User: Which sequence fits this backbone?
């Protein structure tokens, strides 16, 4: 199958983006360099083409009840116009995907899933379908642009798309969304993101995405706007301590191990994986996610072994040089039986033991994010 | 160092023979572009004896890590402490401020296996087209 292009692809090529294949899409990994782009988002504002993300719409009288059966967080508690972060697990309580749930009403819900998992989740939703619902894959019809950084609010205020809601964007709270009638089409604007900075995400008809992208670049010139690639998207989410599917989360990992107990709710009706997760919570998860700072030179990359007093206690899930903090940091899943806070820690980097210490997650918390 | 006057390896290191006959080593503009932001380099200590095409160090970029190979045999006589301390200068200026180390070479005959600038450009062109072939194969697999 040929790699897919997002509706904004041509612009990325024109702007000199380095293109890589990711989750079946040709995506820009960087434009000016990861560190420079990372800094743009922390200090000014950056644009991300995240049109590869999957959008699955669940509609019908049982849409809310089905979604609550499918995910671990409590969708029933959401008000219309509210969003929650959650995981969807299999029967074994392991993570199939981490996703956002947008609740328009009890009869209309949108799931935003990772591009690598869109087809898997779509098949799974159809497989476990129950009640009176309809499932629609909207991924190909929807473009998605993330506008992230301290200047994001000001930038949105400057584009025509947002004119009808200009006075309401400033009051839009974290994990809330509003809809805009854009020439007869519905556009969703949410206060969400994956950078740890104040930011918004726009879901719009794929055909409108290139025009809005261009308008954002032009309107944001004085605000320091820049296009941002997947490379900086990863370093930004990493500093903010957000999980990335395929790294901190996969089908061998439970959400409780990955530090996501806050999205695993038990005061709700049955959902897939619930009984296993309840038992795991009772007995305590066998692994936990920790933050590490390397005290020597090098980068602890995914899969590298974490050692305590010379013995392996787990593995690195993500690691990089954190541009804002100027440190070599890592997240790692380690055995709950180990006590890395007390022991002598190291990460084995290509045969060399590089000393490390435990640091709290998230590594970075912005003052502009809430 | 003038890129046109350097010799090159398949691993994208450049070699410049200075007026004393000492080989100055760095990595090419192409290598820097492929790696992205470099955050650490690990080089052998001064006095180390190295052999041609031995892995002698590593280059850590934000996204990836690469081995550094010795383009020639000989003794490491100097390393660029500035590049070790501030690797971003390698990204900014790979042929001047961003040089890696100097090797006192033992066998000038080894220079014959290195690419000239023109040969290296040709090699890069071939690589690019190979990469394109690979990605089209990957596409067919999916």
Assistant:
């Amino acid at each position: 199958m040929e790699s897919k292009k997002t509706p904004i692809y041509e612009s990325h090529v024109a702007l000199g983006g380095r293109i890589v294949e990711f989750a079946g899409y040709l995506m820009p990994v960087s434009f000016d360099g990861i560190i420079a782009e990372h800094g743009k988002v922390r200090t000014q504002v950056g644009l991300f083409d995240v049109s590869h993300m999957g959008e699955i719409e669940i509609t019908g009288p049982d849409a809310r009840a089905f979604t609550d059966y499918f995910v671990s967080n409590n969708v029933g508690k959401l008000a219309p116009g509210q969003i929650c972060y959650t995981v969807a697990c299999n029967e074994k309580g392991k993570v199939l995907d981490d996703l956002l749930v947008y609740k328009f009403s009890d009869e209309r819900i949108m799931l935003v899933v990772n591009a690598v998992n869109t087809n898997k989740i779509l098949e799974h939703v159809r497989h476990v379908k129950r009640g009176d619902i309809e499932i629609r894959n909207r991924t190909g019809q929807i473009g998605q642009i993330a506008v992230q950084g301290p200047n994001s609010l000001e930038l949105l205020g400057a584009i025509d798309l947002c004119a009808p809601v200009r006075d309401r964007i400033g009051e839009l709270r974290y994990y809330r969304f509003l809809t805009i009638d854009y020439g007869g089409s519905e556009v969703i604007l949410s206060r969400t993101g994956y950078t740890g900075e104040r930011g918004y995400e726009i879901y719009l008809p794929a055909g409108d995405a290139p025009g809005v992208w261009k308008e954002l670049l032009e309107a944001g010139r004085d605000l320091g706007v820049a296009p941002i690639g997947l490379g900086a998207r990863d370093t930004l989410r990493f500093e903010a301590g957000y999980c990335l599917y395929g790294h901190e989360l996969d089908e061998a990992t439970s959400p409780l191990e990955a530090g996501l107990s806050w999205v695993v709710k038990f005061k709700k009706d049955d959902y897939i994986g619930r009984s296993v997760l309840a038992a795991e919570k009772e007995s305590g998860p066998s692994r936990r996610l920790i933050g590490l700072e390397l005290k020597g030179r090098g980068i602890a990359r995914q899969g590298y072994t974490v050692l305590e007093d010379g013995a392996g206690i787990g593995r690195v899930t993500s690691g990089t040089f954190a541009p804002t903090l100027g440190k070599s940091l890592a997240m790692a899943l380690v055995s709950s039986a180990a006590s890395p806070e007390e022991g002598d820690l190291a990460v084995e980097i290509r045969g060399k033991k590089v000393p490390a210490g435990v640091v709290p997650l998230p590594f970075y918390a912005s003052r502009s994010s809430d | 160092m003038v890129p046109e006057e350097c010799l090159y390896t398949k691993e994208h290191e450049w070699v410049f023979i200075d007026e004393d006959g000492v080989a100055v080593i760095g990595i090419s503009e192409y290598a820097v572009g492929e790696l992205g932001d470099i955050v650490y380099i690990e080089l052998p200590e001064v006095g180390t004896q190295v052999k041609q095409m031995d892995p002698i160090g590593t280059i850590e970029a934000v996204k990836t890590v690469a081995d550094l190979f010795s383009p020639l045999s000989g003794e490491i006589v100097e390393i660029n402490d500035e590049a070790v301390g501030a690797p971003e200068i390698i990204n900014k200026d790979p042929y001047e401020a961003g040089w890696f180390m100097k090797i006192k070479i033992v066998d000038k005959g080894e220079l014959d296996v290195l690419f000239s600038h023109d040969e290296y450009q040709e090699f890069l062109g071939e690589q690019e087209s190979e990469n394109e072939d690979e990605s089209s194969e990957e596409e067919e697999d999916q």
Q: What stands out?
A: The helical segments of chain B are 29-35, 81-85, 88-92, 117-141. The domain at 3-141 of chain B is CATH 2.40.50.100 (OB fold (Dihydrolipoamide Acetyltransferase, E2P)). Residues 92 and 98 of chain B are 8 Å apart (CA to CA).
